[in-house]
């Protein structure tokens, strides 16, 4: 096998979020996620860092596009990834990212989502535990994007959710030992579904839920436990309607594990009760 998990483990490191109301978004992530804006000399993006999490908030304009940034261990790992992209004829370009050291690269998936891979430049900070861990999309072309990330980039399928007709409805993909660092739901739209912060245990989930309760930010899904990944979770939204998930106990998966198969039903997405079913 020649997967990212085995050769070039990669974990979600930060997000670039584009917003029509960036000031509101910055305030939300400062107040609710303990992120602090750091000076960014090269653009008017707001670069925000915190303990094991970071985002870049960009104003909505034609030249600004969102992206999803994964870190690898060092420049050698990054050059291995670049070699893999070249072998599979995936076009990529250098990108100047404020949270990665030099040499970061950007490529697009078949539907134009931008993914950045690089080596983290920042130092760790202390604070409430919530490590940026995975991101998820809805897609009209699930088979096509899955083949791209598995065959060309090196992600591994951890679990699939299969509908009543035998079609694949959800794919969970890993790039390191954690059950998923990326996932795609089949849907009628191509949109960002959510991003997730992994905490240390159930008590952290309680504390984060209490923090959102105090700010009168309601939970819209959960608390519950997902079937695939077996993680505890709840979800809230930021002022732009972007969905944030807080998770604990996410399963770890061996590199040689066979992909799991789950039926498409509420119980798969939330074994504790009702589920948010994408359509
Ligand atoms: Fe998730």
Automatic annotation (TrEMBL):
Residue span(s) of domain VOC: 131-249
InterPro entries referenced in this protein's UniProt entry, alphabetically: Glyas_Bleomycin-R_OHBP_Dase, Glyas_Fos-R_dOase_dom, VOC_core
A UniProt-annotated Pfam family: Glyoxalase
PROSITE patterns the UniProt entry points to: VOC
Name recorded for this polypeptide: VOC domain-containing protein
């Amino acid at each position: 096998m020649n997967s990212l998990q085995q050769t070039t483990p990669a974990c979600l490191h930060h997000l670039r979020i584009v917003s029509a109301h960036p000031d509101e978004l910055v305030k939300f992530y400062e107040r609710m996620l303990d992120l602090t804006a750091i000076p960014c000399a090269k653009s008017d993006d707001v670069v925000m860092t915190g303990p094991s999490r970071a985002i870049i908030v960009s104003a909505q304009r034609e030249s600004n596009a969102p992206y999803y940034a994964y870190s690898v261990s060092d420049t050698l790992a990054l050059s291995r990834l670049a070699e893999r992209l070249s072998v599979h004829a995936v076009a990529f370009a250098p990108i100047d990212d404020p949270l990665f050291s030099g040499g970061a690269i950007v490529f697009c998936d078949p539907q134009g989502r931008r993914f950045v891979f690089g080596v983290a430049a920042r130092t760790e900070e202390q604070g409430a535990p919530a490590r940026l861990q995975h991101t998820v999309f809805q897609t009209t072309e699930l088979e096509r994007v899955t083949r791209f990330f598995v065959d060309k980039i090196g992600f591994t399928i951890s679990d699939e959710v299969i509908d009543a007709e035998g079609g694949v409805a959800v794919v969970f993909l890993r790039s390191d030992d954690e059950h998923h660092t990326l996932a795609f739901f089949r849907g009628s739209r191509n949109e960002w579904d959510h991003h997730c912060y992994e905490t240390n245990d159930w008590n952290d989930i309680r504390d984060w839920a209490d923090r959102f309760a105090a700010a009168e930010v309601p939970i819209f899904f959960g608390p519950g436990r997902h079937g695939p990944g077996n993680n505890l979770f709840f979800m809230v939204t930021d002022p732009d309607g972007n969905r944030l998930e807080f998770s604990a106990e996410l399963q770890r998966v061996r590199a040689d594990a066979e992909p799991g198969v789950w039926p498409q039903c509420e119980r798969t997405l939330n074994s504790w009760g009702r589920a948010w079913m994408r359509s």
